[in-house]
Amino acid sequence: MLAANEEGPAVPGILDVLHYLENEPVMLHALQEFMNITQQRESLLNARLTEAERRLAEYEGQNAQQEVEVEEMEEEPAPQELEFNIEEAEWAPLPESDDEAEWLAEAEWAPLPEDSEESPEVPVAPVEASGVKEPEEAVREIVLRSRTIKVPVPATNTTLAAAIPEAFRPADLGDLP
After folding, report:
1. 137-143 and 148-154 as β-strands: parallel, antiparallel, unpaired?
2. Where along the chain is composition biased (Low complexity) (predicted)?
3. Which ranges of 76-144 would DSSP assign to H, the alpha helix?
């Protein structure tokens, strides 16, 4: 069983162990069962390793493709927004100059009607009816810090009258200074 070698006794090989266990059938059966279980586990681990390597190759391919797409997107100019964002306009930066003379006065933001234009009744011209009704359109101005925006608004049939300013009458404060 032990092979003698010039350097010393040799370690028994698997064939020596199997030859020895032929006389011990219970131990031989236990060893064979252990070897079968070990072989099954090794096969399962090899299959899992192969699957993991395949998935890794897929992910690397996807990542490489995504990196190419990201690089292409970075090279293309960003699309310009066509919509007007009112919140953004409200937070628009003020003029860079601190010179108050260059700033618009409040009265210049939106023109007020002249005194001659103010009247409680606004005359309305009759509209001639034609075969095709076209919606009337009026223009309203939205005044923001940095610019004025003209927005077309469908006109209504109701007439708007200018508000008549009332005289300010402060409350009686008595003997307060």
Report:
1. antiparallel
2. 121-130
3. 86-90, 106-109
